[in-house]
Amino acid sequence: MSGLELRVHVADRDVDVALEIGAGETVAVIGANGAGKSTLLEALAGFLRPDRGRIVLEGETLLDTESSEAVPPHRRPVALLAQEALLFPHLTVRNNVAFPLRHRLGLARPAAAVEAGRRLDALGAGHLAQRRPAQLSGGQAQRVALVRALAADPRLLLLDEPLAALDATAVPDMRAALRAAASGRTALVVTHDPLDALSLAERVVVIERGRVVQQGPPTEVLRTPRSEFGRSLLALNPWIAAVDLEALRAGLGDD
């Protein structure tokens, strides 16, 4: 089964991007602020309607501007994990995770509570089930948000700088959780961090001024950049040129 086919043109943002992601493939999209990365996420999630475009996920058309077809955000099999956890503050962790199980999958309240507990346990967050978001650290809240994002079993996972707001001590564990969640799942990661691209993605796409300017394996794109952003990334992170990126990538992939 095919994965994702995307073509979006947004005139007032000067974005014109075509992209394909294979079924089960994780792709990292990198680029400077204003390059068009957020536009892609907004279009995929259904928050933005491009002037022209087509989005097909596993054979299902989510958007086709020519036929005026557009699946609304709440009906798309897509989950977005942003920089902030955005948990419901009045609900416990268990009930935050149970929410999509009830409203997207139609589980009854008792069954949703049991399933929420199982999913929290699977990502090492079961001990947080009775807490409210205000009682969580940043890393704990983001882990719970990941469990909630996956609760409705989305066919496409969107990660928007999911580690950017975390304390440095929380990043390695959360990066490992994201790697496990994305494994075998069609996913798109927007990031500025080369370590995220190396550890999470099988392919990196560089966007500059609203256009795709380079794509390929993470080690190739990071080592031999063909864009202004890629070269600036290499300049700011000289370790990229100095270390064995394949060995580093293998190490980052270890549990």
UniProtKB/TrEMBL annotation:
Ranges of residues in domain ABC transporter: 1-234
MF annotations from Gene Ontology: ATP binding; ATP hydrolysis activity
InterPro entries in UniProt: AAA+_ATPase, ABC_SmlMolc_Importer, ABC_transporter-like_ATP-bd, ABC_transporter-like_CS, P-loop_NTPase
SMART domains per UniProt: AAA
One protein family per Pfam: ABC_tran
PANTHER family, per the entry: SPERMIDINE/PUTRESCINE IMPORT ATP-BINDING PROTEIN POTA (PTHR42781), SPERMIDINE_PUTRESCINE IMPORT ATP-BINDING PROTEIN POTA (PTHR42781:SF4)
UniProt protein name: ABC transporter domain-containing protein
